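Support reply, case 0932

Customer input (verbatim):
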Amino acid sequence: MNTRQNVLFRCDGDAQLGLGHVYRCLASAEQLREGHGWGVSFAMATGPIGFDLIRQTGYPIEHKPDDDDEDNWLDNVIQSIRPDALVLDVRSELARSSVEKWRSEGLLIVTLDDPSERRLAADLAFYPPVPQVERIDWAGFTGKLYVGWEWVILRKEFATTPCPKPQVPSPKPRAPKVLVTMGGSDPQGMTLKAVKALEMLDEDFEVVVVLGAGFQYKENLDNLMSTCKHRFDVRENVQNMAEIMAQSDLAVASFGVTAYELAAMGVPAIYLCLTEDHAKSASAFVEAGIGVCLGVFTHTSTDMLTEEVRQLLNDASRRSQMADRAGQHVDGRGVKRIARMIATRTEKTND
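Our regenerated output:
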């Protein structure tokens, strides 16, 4: 094990962007550090929420000055740190030409789910099996492309076999547990729409609502719940998300990293999407029989969501089939596979 090897992660996370990129990089960082003995650093341009998540782990962070160009700033960071690998998980304007320069200087370039032209300058590019990847023009790409459920990056707590849901024999079956989770920030307040939809149901069920670190609609949610007939168990600063998911029978969730986490825990889900691109990605889950996508949330009425939840609440057999398929597709071990590949590639380069 070569403890002198180091990796630099470039990501951002804030209330608008979400925290999925940060969580993916943190999971990868932990695997490279704990599993391969690598040193880890982060380079971040925006997001106090993301900064805080990184600080809690103790990893050093390089912050981009407001008056500096991203390409110039990151080049200076690379020249200072001299990492062996650069992992890019950003939606910024970082130029392909800069990435090509760093690659030509011997830096291993890794991209995660990157739709930009930067991907063409990567040594290793990893993507979930979403339809957009097949439609991208890969002309000029000389690296290695990996696409599939097995490359999905999740935190280590999701690399486990889903626990069987508790079964209570008839005639008093257990009420289904519904989880509402809209990711780390929920920038458009989709949690409110989910609560309104569930409130319209007359079925017997339990609800857990998880609020991410960047949730900005707490006062609106409190006002809404003060008029609800159903009891909503609201949880903040959750540290045991995998456990909460494993105990759930159905989820109403924003599409993103959360969707993959739910699949790893064998939870059938109804997805609301922030963008058309997310809706296209969610189609892979629908095709796999893992979940139901209602499209972009602004085009989804509360009544539509209520009816979809009602159908799944009343169809335990369908939920069970969806849960089985989810567990078969996402095993939560993608981060180990990717870290091993990064370590192997650098070892070959240094031989």
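We compared this against your earlier run and they match. Two observations from our side: Residues 160-329 form a domain with the Rossmann fold fold (CATH 3.40.50.2000). The longest strand covers residues 6-11. Please reopen the case if you see a mismatch on your end.
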